[in-house]
Amino acid sequence: MIINNKIYKYINNLIKNYEPVYLKNIKKYYNNKKNIKMMSDNLQGRFLSLISRLKNPKYILEIGTFLGYSTLCLSEGLKQNGLLITIEKNKKYIEYAKINFKTTKYNKNIKILYGNALNVIPKLKYNFDIVFIDADKKNYLNYFKLIFNKVKRNGLIICDNVLWKGNIIYNYNKDNITKSIKHFNNTIKKYKNINSIIIPIRDGLNIIIKN
Ligand SMILES: C[S@@+](CC[C@H](N)C(=O)[O-])C[C@H]1O[C@@H](n2cnc3c(N)ncnc32)[C@H](O)[C@@H]1O
């Protein structure tokens, strides 16, 4: 948690009634306490939903599905005939995600692709309005480079965990993941044709807009 725990709880308390029941159910049925932390929480989820609703995208790409929490949040803003493609390398998680999508009205708009995102992305033939990067942290820069030309002008690239529990500042030599994220953030800072801002929600979201 990047921001003060009490403030986070205060905000969460104010928005807790906004969490749709299909998202509440994801947490109810999957109870591996350690893994569940990988999933977006209500605050991050509502933020992703808000961004998507503002953008009203035709095409969204998500890298890292897990149980589909963020997938469903992002789907909430899709155009009626829009498409969200989500890539996941773990078959077990895909089975869970399918169950979670099935009961929602977004099911018809979501396509899950199985495989390593590094191999899957080059085959995609869409121009995306939003890309959400939330898979293995060491490959963030690779994902960014692979998707950049597939993002529309004024399109958004949203990257999760860019503050990595604060290690990025307090403990930046801690491990290879911290080093990768730091390298990613520094590279993005120098990138041309974009503007970016890190929002300290949960583990840090970098919102990048393509000019
Ligand atoms: C942090 S979780 C995603 C959480 C989800 N986006 C959410 O907020 O609810 C990361 C997911 O990325 C998947 N993943 C990791 N490396 C991957 C890769 N190279 N290709 C595809 N999926 C990958 C993991 O299996 C895991 O399910």
Account of the protein in words:
- It is a single chain.
- The chain is α/β, with parallel strands linked by helices and 211 residues long.
- It has a single domain, classed as 3-Layer(aba) Sandwich (Rossmann fold), CATH 3.40.50.150.
- Helix content is 42%, strand content 21%.
- It has 10 helices and 7 strands.
- It has a 7-stranded mixed beta sheet with strand order 3-2-1-4-5-7-6, sandwiched between helices.
- Helix 6 links the parallel strand 2 and strand 3.
- The chain is globular, with a radius of gyration of 16 Å.
- The model has no long low-confidence stretch (mean pLDDT 95).
- It binds S-adenosylmethionine (SAM).
- S-adenosylmethionine binds next to helix 5, strand 2 and helix 7.
Low-confidence stretches: none
Q: Roughly how much helix do the residues carry, as a percent range? A: 40-55%
Q: What does the radius of gyration come to?
A: 16 Å
H/E series, N to C?
HHHHEHEHEHEHEHHEE
Shape assignment? globular
> What ligand species are in this complex?
S-adenosylmethionine
Q: Helices and strands in order, then pairings?
A:
Blueprint: H1 5-15, H2 21-29, H3 33-36, H4 42-55, E1 59-63, H5 69-75, E2 83-88, H6 91-102, E3 110-114, H7 117-120, E4 128-133, H8 140-148, E5 151-160, H9 167-170, H10 176-190, E6 194-199, E7 205-210
Parallel strand pairs: 1-2, 1-4, 2-3, 4-5
Antiparallel strand pairs: 5-7, 6-7
Helix pairs in contact: 4-5
Bound molecules: S-adenosylmethionine (SAM).
